[in-house]
């Protein structure tokens, strides 16, 4: 798929077919994330791929509190995105500039994972609303680490929707704000 087509095709999918996702395709998605740029090449991420059905159901349950994200149960795979510690130089730069480079880096990596999935015919949805403490316990993630995002992956049963976005003039300018 041409890149311009790919960014139009990728969407937050909330309806998945009852089909397993091939491990080779999941590995391609992880590889796309692995190759993402990061501040001082610190690569502050780890992706925990949850494809065991019983464990996946438990993790999905952590994302459905208050009636939110019920569709997560349909997805055959959930990827937990763990923020790892940055290297020393990126940590210092983050403190000096008061910017959390690790979260920026994770966002880029997750986007690359999702674009790769779309290119392989898979749907994804990035989830920020979930019980992080319970997910960390289920996946045996250290207390000092954070899981800012979950990503569902599967074969989407949803049609590609037209993007509803601000106009180019509303979201960009030239040479000054």
- Going across the biggest sheet, name each strand in turn: 1-2-4-3
Q: CATH topology, what is it called?
A: NADH Oxidase
Instruction: Please count the beta strands (DSSP E, at least 2 residues each).
Output: 4
The first-to-last residue Cα distance is 34 Å
Could you estimate the helical fraction of the residues in percent? Answer: 25-40%
What does this structure look like?
With 177 residues, the chain is of the alpha+beta class. It has a single domain (3-171), classed as NADH Oxidase (3-Layer(aba) Sandwich), CATH 3.40.109. It contains seven helices and four strands. The chain has a four-stranded antiparallel beta sheet, sandwiched between helices. The longest helix is centred in the middle third of the chain and has 19 residues, at 101-119. The relative contact order is 0.23.
Brief write-up:
This protein is of the alpha+beta class.
Layout of SSEs?
Layout: H1 3-9, H2 23-34, E1 45-50, H3 53-62, E2 77-83, H4 88-97, H5 101-119, E3 123-127, H6 132-139, E4 146-154, H7 168-171
Antiparallel strand pairs: 1-2, 2-4, 3-4
Helix pairs in contact: 2-5, 3-6
Characteristic terms for this protein:
globular; 7 helices; four-stranded antiparallel beta sheet; Nitroreductase; oxidoreductase; 40% helix; NADH Oxidase; 177 residues; alpha+beta
